[in-house]
Amino acid sequence: MFILISALFVPPKTYAIQYELVPGNLLVRGAIANDWVPMITFTVGAESSDNIAVIIKITRSESTTIAKSALIRIWLSDTAGAAATSTAPDGSGTAANGWITSDGTEFEEQTGEIKYLILTGSDGDVTITLNDDDADNDWYVNAELDGIVYSSTVISHAL
Fold it and tell me: Hey, which bits of 6-159 come out as E strands?
């Protein structure tokens, strides 16, 4: 049996899947390559003038960038993969806002400076810059794509 599979960001592919009908069950054997499954990777930059840039990139299997725009939910939390923090970046120093989006569009701000729906650029990534001068605040950037949550390494501002 041949099945045509088409998913978000993926040109259609044909896969051979072996199946067997067992009374009361459908047993499927074989694997579908995950090289087309979209996932999110993070690159956290070094701090400069209270700013830390985080590049959020949609890739296939952590290697190939997907060159398409996508709508992703992004938020800050106090621990990886957790609910949104209650402490937003303060936006002091060189920026008027604590959260600055570039190479993408803030589609909807859900909680000020903490949680957004963001449309990535046409190259499949977005850069957010967190501006904060308080060394007591550590955050994780979390991003949700297709119901799966991905988290950055910890983001810590120095004194």
Answer: 13-16, 18-22, 25-29, 38-44, 51-60, 64-65, 71-77, 99-102, 104-111, 115-120, 125-131, 138-145, 148-151, 155-156
Range of the domain at 9: 1-35
pLDDT classification of 154: cutoffs 50, 70, 90: very high
Asked whether the whole model's pTM tops 0.85, one would answer no
In whole angstroms, what is the distance from residue 47 CA to residue 52 CA?
A: 5
> What total of structural domains would you count in the chain?
2
Q: Could you report the per-residue pLDDT of 79-99, keeping only the tens digit for each?
A: 999 999 988 888 765 555 778
- What's the N-to-C CA distance of the chain in angstroms? 62
